[in-house]
Amino acid sequence: KDTNGDALWVWCYPSITAELRSLLLRKCCLTDENKLLHTFVFGQYKRSWFYITTVEVQDSPALKKVTHFSIVLMAKDFNPEKYAAFTRILCRIYLKHGSPVKMMESYIAVLTKGICQSEENGSFLSKDFDARKAYLAGSIKDIVSQFGMETVILYTALMLKKRIVVYHPRIEAIQEFTRTLPALVWHRQDWSILHSYVHLNEEEVEALKACTGYIAGFTDSEVNSRPDLYDVYVNLADSEITISPVVKEAMTMGKLHKEIGLLIVQSAEDPDKSDSQVIKDISLKTKEILATLASLTEVSDGNEKPTLNSEALKQKRFPPATENFLFHLAAAEQMLKI
Length: 338
Description:
This protein is α/β, with parallel strands linked by helices and 338 residues long. It has 12 helices and 12 strands. The strands form 4 sheets. Strands 7-8-6-9-10 form a 5-stranded mixed sheet, covered by helices on one side. A hairpin with a 2-residue loop joins strand 1 (40-45) and strand 2 (48-56). Helix 2 runs antiparallel to helix 3 (100-113) and helix 5 (140-147) crosses helix 9. The N and C termini lie far apart (55 Å).
C-alpha cells in the first residue's frame, strides 16, 4: 500500500491464476475499507493454503513510498506457525532491501534445503515445525470453557462429517477457534476440512459447497441467513450453537452423547491436564465407539471394506439415539451397503 493509499499487486512467483489473485486480494487487509490491520491470516481454497503476513513500514530507506505491505505464501500443508515464522523473516528482508529478489533467495533455500539463515533477519528451519505440532497448537480447553456440554454438538457434527459454519466479527477469533475443532476427531487427523477464512463470494461459496463436511469461518454476519451452507451454526461472539432442522434427526442427542459430553467437560476442566491430554481422552472414547461399530460390520461380496450389518445393530438393543448415531456414523465412514 503506497502513500497515496492505493493497494497494488506488485510481484509474484512463479505465477497465479486470475481467480486466485482476486481471492488473495480479498483476503489481504490492505484492500479492506475498514483499515483494520491483521498481522497474520490464513485459510484454504481448493486444497491450497494461503498465509498472509502484513506489516507497517516505518523508517525503511528502501521503501520510501510504501506505508504497509503484505507477503502471501501459498503452500500445500496446514502449518500456521511455520509459515508465520517464515513470512516474518521474508518481511524483514523486504523491509531492508525493498526488493523481492533477496526474498526469493531465502524462499528457494527453504524450498530446496528446508533452511534459510541470516544474522540480522533470523533463521528458519522447516523441520522445527512438525505437522502434528500444528494440529495441537489450538486450545480444546478454551472451547470447552466457552461451550461446556454443548461441545458434544461440535463433536457429533465432526464425527458425522457435517457442515459447521462459525461466525465472529474478528478474524483472529475465528482462526483460533476453527483450527482447533478438527482435533475433536483426532483419529482422522484431517485438517483439509478447515476453511478458516471464507467470504460470501460466489466462487468461494461454490468451492465450499463442493466439499462433503467442513468447518468454515466467516466474519460476515450475513452468513446466518445462508442455511444452505451449514448443518451446525456457531455464533462465536454470542457463544450460541444452532442445529439446522435438516440434520436434527441425525444429530439427535441421547445417553451416549451425554456420556461423551461429560467426559469432554471433566477432562477439559482438570487443571492438571494439558490440551493434548484432553484430546487423547476424547480420542480414546472415539476409539471405543469405532470399535463398537467395527464389531457390527461384516465383509461381503469380495468387498474389502466392511459394511454395517443392520440386523446386528438392531439386536444390540441400544437406546434409539445411540443406534441412530452409530447408523449415521457408519454412513459418514462409508460403511453402509448401497
